[in-house]
TrEMBL record:
Protein name: RNA-directed DNA polymerase
The enzyme's E.C. designation: 2.7.7.49
Protein's UniProt keywords contain Nucleotidyltransferase: yes
EC primary class: transferase
Example GO biological process: proteolysis
Keyword Nucleotidyltransferase part of the UniProt annotation: yes
High-level lineage: Eukaryota, Metazoa, Ecdysozoa, Arthropoda, Hexapoda
Keywords: Endonuclease, Hydrolase, Multifunctional enzyme, Nuclease, Nucleotidyltransferase, Protease, RNA-directed DNA polymerase, Transferase
Amino acid sequence: MNGKINELLEAGIIRKSTSEYASPVVLVKKKGGDYRLCVDYRALNANTIKDRYPLPHIEDQVTRLSGKSYFTTLDLAQGYYQVPIDDESIRKTAFITQSGLYEFLKMPFGLSNAPAVFARLIQVTLGEVSHEIALYLDDVMIPTISVKRGLELLEQVLGLLEKANLKLHLKKCSFLKNTTNYLDHEISAGTIQPGRAKINCVAEYRRPRNVHEVRQFIGLTSYFRKFIRNFAQIAQPLTELTKKDIEWHWDSQQEQAFRTLKQRLIERPVLGIYDKDAKTELHTDASKLGLGGVLIHKHQRDGNLKPIAFFSRVTTNEERCYHSYELETLAVVESLKRFRIYLTGIPVKIVTDCAALRTTLVKKDLIPRIARWWLTIQDFDLEIEYWPGERMKHVDALSRNPSSNFVLMIDNDDWLKTLQMQDEGIQNILAQFREQSINPDLIANYVVKDNLLFRKTIGGERFVIPKLAKYGLLQKLHDQIGHPGFEKCEKTIKAQFWFPGMTRFIRKYINACLQCAFGKGNHGKLEGELHLIDKAACPMHTIPYTQIIWVLS
């Protein structure tokens, strides 16, 4: 503590104080191993007039990266400490330590208005280039199509920062990279996935022991909920624990939800980045259990469909009593609200398996509840298209099935070990091999190599895929290699992997594949051949009849 105080004194960030204010203080360790002085300003904040300057929307900033190939990230050195405090307010920032009372000369963390003040400063400083860059507090991203434009824009941004006397932390900056980390996401050309550092925190998160830790875990995973199909349904056993008057318990449902959310994020699913020039569709579905929606791009060049974000939520007890038409309408309304930042001001095609929704836009005698819902989204430019249920399996899972499709990073043995470490059944088998108390059937069917479990088959030894990784494996070895048919896909997977019921699972997955549904096969009912009826030469020329044969005993 004393070392940090001396460091801040020498930097001119704090000074000794005789103020009548005194807030408590604590040291918090930062990522790089350094410490940050944090003051508990709750009492001061409660009596502060709030600055309502809007903070940047993270999804809006990420959208600006669409179509770009080169990324430069700039980090302002101790961003808040570069902002001087008004003389009349300095005494209010006083904090108490063992060595005495001090007060800030520069803006500290913890003040309720600090984010708004800093956001305004950055916007004013870089306002003339803000339409070409992404800004979120002290994180500045310069995305460009070419190296040349990247250098030009970088020079312009650096000039504006110098003019405002704002300094950068060079070690945290990166220049003209094809892949970069921004706001805890890993960004590449046209794709986005959860950042490794944040996912490591998820992977290492211990089993919650109380409601407070459950809330922390839900908050951590919710940041990436757009990557997780059916997030709300998966997390429901955990969110139930946070409700009032619910007694603390932890059983198989909570454990399954906890493990599933961790596994889904460890697999680091990949989504596309929203592109305003691409054709946008919103596919929705609903059931008594929940509502779901998928924001999809249909690219003009190749017609490929790419998911941009997923939405789902559990229905309330009242909503479960709704008619199916009302639930389907609610799914559309809630999905539009969730993706408003993307869909306002552009034509949007709503794809649903509820035929009645097609008349909702022009129907005059809507029931009051649906009329109220529809009024909240009347500013959207909507077109509703009906698809039969068999073509909506990609969204149907969001509202009915807690399983999901995810991209797996099949890179090395670390990935394999991570997957098997999360599976309790596999760990039990490995434990039996280690303890040499092995069931004879296990010896006949399995083998352990480098602490990994393999299945013995006629064609050789195959890596055992955990239950939670099946969907991700299919997405990697089906969706990302050209959507092969069932036989080819099954052959590819069986050459390396094994899991129970593999053939049936692969067939079911491919039958529900959205891209395959678009590009292959006939989706309608096959009609029989039609032939002309011979023209009759005279009345009673042809007489239809039914022959009935009586069998007398």
